[in-house]
Amino acid sequence: FFPISFIVGNLFINLNLVLFCILGIFHLKSKLLTAKYNLPIKIIFLFFLAILFSTSLSFIKSLYSGSYEYIHLVRLVKSILFFRYFLMLIIIYLLSVNNILNFKYFFISAAFSTLLVALDIIYQSIFGFNIIGLESHGSHNSGFFGQEWIAGGFIQNFSFFSILFVIFIFKNKKNLTYILTTITICILGSGIVLSGNRAPLVLFLFGFLLFFLFNKKLWKIILLSLICFFIIFKFVLLPVPLVKSAYESLFHNIRGLVVSETKLKTNADIKHEKEKVQYSFPLYPQYSGFFRTWDPHVRLLLTSVDTWKKNKILGNGIKSFRLDCYKLIGSAIYPEAGYNLSQDVMLFKRNRLCSNHPHNYYFEILTETGIVGLFVTLIIALSFIVFILKNFKLFKGNNMENFILLAATISLILEVFPLKATGSIFTTNDTTYIILISSIILSYKKKWSLIAGS
Question: What is the model's pLDDT at position 209?
Answer without folding.
Answer: 93
